[in-house]
Amino acid sequence: LILNRSKTILAIALAPAMLCVSQAHAHKLHARGVAVAVAGSPVTVTPTRDWNQLGGNIGKATERWTLDGGQLNDVTFFGGIAPGKPLVKERSKKRDPLPKFTKDTLLVEVPELLEGTYRTYKDLAAFQLLSAEPMTFLGHDGVAFSYEFTDADQLTRKGEARATIVGGKLYMITFDAPRLSYYGKVVGDFRALADSAQMR
Amino acid sequence: VRNCALGALAISTVLAGLLAQPAGAAPASVPPPYTGIYQPHGVDEIGLWREDDEDERQLAASNLVIRDEKLTAYVKKVLCDTVGGDRCKSVRVYIIREPTFNASMSPNGTMRVLSGLFLRVRNEAELGGVLGHEFGHFESRHSLEIFKANRSGTDVLAWAAVLASMSASYRTQNSYQNLELSVYGTLFRYKRDQEREADMLGIGYLNRSRLRPQAASKVWQNVMAEIEASSRVRGLSKPNFNAIAFTASHPPNAERAAYLAELALPDAASRDDGGERYRAALAPWLPMFLDDQVKLNDFGGSEYLIQSLAETGWTAQLWFARGELYRSRGNQRDMARAAEFYGHAIELDPAVADAYRGLGLSLFKTGQRTEGQQALRKYLELKPNASDANMIRMMVPKEVSEN
């Protein structure tokens, strides 16, 4: 999940302050063939090639991986979203609330939850769910779905995701990449990674 | 010390220049005679246009632009009806799919209209009011003026910072900070005055047109009501529509609603507002724009918009959107209401497949599985190739679905 939303509020006045902010997030390498637990959850994956883990936290129980940088290919793990919680951290609980996963959310509604989160967080309109098919994920009944959206950077991205609900919590892996070239190049690696996901 | 004094003199001269701005535009009378298609003059303006041309090239290729000749031509026609056929020739209209209330116009004649605007104006006169305001910025060449004002303001601050650093006393620092505040304050106020000027021009065009100028004020009243409805549901304190924040780029909404109402030609109140033509032109687009709004997780705002669109009569689309809105909030009480709204939609138009889907899911979640499955079966019947058909099929028992 790529969370960029450019707003030029008071750019002049903020410019000096922005100079002081340094990028101190540490990235991490996940080597091929080494099983690793993701998003602080009982889910493990065994990468079939080297992946980078992006630093920075977009929410509790999430973790982001990439090959070439988050804008070009982004795998996000959601490791057990509890009922009543949004998928990612809200900018403001009161002013900019995000849709919540609830204990009544049906599997068929999970794609809508992701759609609502993208639209609300990024103020998007151009988002389309392309397909939703049943599949077994982490050994449970799950849903595999795909979507397409155009972000404020005018680039159309394609996405693919797998999700399941286990013990009342939502487990999901998403993959987003620009439709042009990048998606097709890496989607195979993503599928291999998602296939390797197991619940301990 | 001498340097500082000189600097202060220079600063005060420039500041005086900055402050000498058009204080309050003329009341909304007839707009000035049109001077024909304008070409940029001077190095600043030529540079600004060049950047603008580049932006327009990118915009024309953007995936976010709704490339529909009919809708674009309709918006252009409303603009022409408002500002007059000679003026509107210099404008290219681009409709951008973004669910917020906004439109803008840049110096080279590019008009950007965001799709969220179409849910927030109810007729041609209101749309014309917003478009006329943007055209007012264009005709008065406000972008150039604000560019120049920003540049002189920041020049002053840059030089003042150099001078202040020469004498590192507490008092110098203090005066520098005061100067910084007053320069930024002036720039923001300047922007607000430009908005007022564009408002005057906008209402001037409307007064002269065949559309009802009173509509311009109505837009702001509706926007305030929507913001209020949205904050009420979110549990925020009631917004103050008269307050001017230091950094506000626009005059407060209440002030705009008030002066626009005063400036509208009283005799023109009986004119046509083009409401029916507007609804006919937007009808094919309404489901998409409503969907974009409902999925924004702004319950109060969306509910307000649906209700006000329904003032001219409830349609299947409006009931469906309301059902989606309630189902997405997802409380048990919302599910019961959602099922009711989907039911109304189906009554008005039994062919809305997605209403059966929503109805089925809502009934499912309120424990009425059998009825829910019936509705879902109907959904599959109407839309067997739906993108989520196989997921829905899982929820409908096989032996029954084969009946």
Low-confidence stretches of chain A: 5-24
How much helix is in the residues of chain B? Answer: 55-70%
**How many distinct beta strands of chain B?**
3
Instruction: Round the Cα radius of gyration of chain A to an integer and report it.
Output: 17 Å
Low-confidence stretches of chain B: 1-27
Share of β-strand residues of chain B: under 5%
Mean pLDDT of chain B: 88
- C-alpha geometry of chain B: globular
Order of helices and strands of chain A: HEEEEEEEEHEEEEHE
Structural class of chain B: mainly alpha
- The number of strands of chain A is 13
Oligomeric form of this entry? heterodimer
Approximate helicity band of chain A: 10-25%
Shape of chain A: globular
Characterize the largest beta sheet of chain B: strand count, sense, and whether it forms a barrel: 3 strands, mixed
The helix count of chain B comes to 19
Largest sheet of chain A: 8 strands, antiparallel
Rg of chain B (CA only): 27 Å
Number of helical elements of chain A? 3
**Gap between N and C termini of chain A, in Å?**
25 Å
Task: Indicate the structural class of chain A.
Answer: alpha+beta
Fold blueprint:
The complex is a heterodimer of chains A (200) and B (403).
Chain A: H1 11-19, E1 28-30, E2 36-37, E3 43-45, E4 51-54, E5 62-66, E6 74-81, E7 85-86, E8 100-101, H2 110-122, E9 127-137, E10 140-150, E11 156-166, E12 169-178, H3 182-195, E13 198-199
Antiparallel strand pairs in A: 1-4, 2-3, 3-13, 4-5, 5-6, 6-12, 7-8, 9-10, 10-11, 11-12
Chain B: H1 2-19, H2 42-60, H3 69-83, H4 85-88, E1 92-96, E2 103-105, E3 110-114, H5 117-120, H6 124-139, H7 142-166, H8 170-208, H9 215-234, H10 253-263, H11 275-282, H12 286-294, H13 299-309, H14 316-329, H15 332-348, H16 353-365, H17 369-382, H18 389-395, H19 398-401
Parallel strand pairs in B: 1-3
Antiparallel strand pairs in B: 2-3
